[in-house]
Amino acid sequence: MMSQISLLMTHLLFLPLTLCLLHPPPVHVPTLVPHVPTPLLRSHFSAHTQLDFTTHCNSSCFHRGEQEAQKEQLSEKLAFETLYADGSRTLTTVDVEGDDEEFEGNRFTQTPRARVKPRHKRVRRQIYGADGRFNIQGDNFLLDYPFSTAVRISTGCTGVLVSQQHVLTAAHCVHDGKDYVKGARKLRVGFLLPPNINGSKVTSSKRPLVRWVRVKRTRVPKGWIQGPQEVSMDFDYALLELRWPHRRPFMRLSVAPDSDDLAGHRIHFSGFDSDRSGQLVYRFCPVEQESSDLIYQHCDARPGASGSGVYGRVWDNSLERWERKVIGIFSGHQWLEIDGESRDYNVAVRITPLKFAQICYWVHGNRLDCAQD
C-alpha cells in the first residue's frame, strides 16, 4: 500500500513538468445582482437521500447548453434557496449583468462546445475495468493537501472545502428536487482525523476518526429545484456554510476550462465511496466527453462519492503558475444516447462562469469580490 501511495504522490508532484507552455486566456466572470430574499414556508424534510444518482440524456439534452439563453431564463435558474439551521428558508432572485453582445455570443453559457469523442467499451457500471481507486491512509496523507480538503456529509455524501467556512457538495445530497432530505434538518460536515490522534498506535485495520461540525446555512440553486431530473443535473451543486471556521487548507474554485487546457487532460477527486466504509478514496482519469454543463468521464466511483470536488491543474494568471482548483462537482451516473448508441459515464457538474459567479457570491456575500476577471 505504501509503495502505491508513494507512486501516487510522485505522479502528483511531477505532473506540472509535462504541462504545455501555452496558457488559456482569462475567462470573464459575469456579475450577479441579488434581490432582497423572500421568506418561504418551512421545509417538510420529507425527501429520502438518493446516493445512487442516475439520469438519462439524449442528443438534444447533450447539446442543450449550446442554445442561446435569454437573461430572464438564466436569472430564473440562478435564483437560489437558503435553508437555515432552524428550518426556515428564503428565496433570493438575481439579475445577471452583462452586455447583450455577450449573451448573444453565448459568452457566459458555452464553455466549451459539446463534443463526442470515440466510444469506449463499457465494462460495468461505475467501475470501469480494473478498479483504479486508491485508499488514502496514514497521518501524512490524510492531513496533506489536497486530500485534506475532502469532508464527509452526514447524509452519506462527500464535500470539498472551498473556503474557511464553506463546503461545496452535490445538491441531491440535501434536496431531491422537490423537498429537502430528512437528514438536512440537522446537517453536519465531518472532518477526518488520523486514528492515532490520541496517541494510539496506527494499524492498517484502524479507520480514521471523524469530527462533526453543524451546518449553519445551506444554499441550493433554483435550477436544481425547478427542473426535471435530466435538466437539473446541470445544477446539481449546493454550498454549506459551517457554524464556525475550520483551520485546514481549502481548494480555490475556477471556471472549468476545456479539457485540452487541463494538465494531462485529467481530472481528480477524493470521496467516501460506500463500498469502502470509513476510507477516503482518491482517483484520477482523463475527460472522455464534454458538454456546456457536464464533464463526462470514466473515473471509478461508487455511491457516497457524490459531492466530491472534481479538480484539475489550472493556469492561474495572477500567480503565473499551475494550481489545483475545483472545476466541478461529482454528481453520479448518466446514460447518454448519441447517434443511436447508448453510452454510460460517470458525470461531474462543470463550474461555468455563471455558476462560478453564483457560488462566489454565496461564499463572499459581496458580488464585487466575484466580478473581476
Automatic annotation (TrEMBL):
What Enzyme Commission number does this protein have?
3.4.21.-
The UniProt GO MF terms for this protein read: serine-type endopeptidase activity
Signal sequence, renumbered to the chain: 1-20
Classification via Pfam families: Trypsin
Q: Can you give the residue ranges of the Peptidase S1 domain?
A: 145-279
Record's SUPFAM superfamilies?
Trypsin-like serine proteases (SSF50494)
Give the record's GO biological process terms: proteolysis
Q: InterPro entries recorded for this chain? A: Glutamyl_endopeptidase, Peptidase_S1_PA, Peptidase_S1_PA_chymotrypsin, Peptidase_S1B, Trypsin_dom, TRYPSIN_HIS
PROSITE patterns annotated for this entry?
Answer: TRYPSIN_HIS
Q: Which domain of life is it from?
A: Eukaryota
The family assignment reads: Belongs to the peptidase S1 family.
Q: What name does the UniProt record give this protein?
A: Serine protease
Q: Origin organism of this chain?
A: Dissostichus eleginoides (Patagonian toothfish)
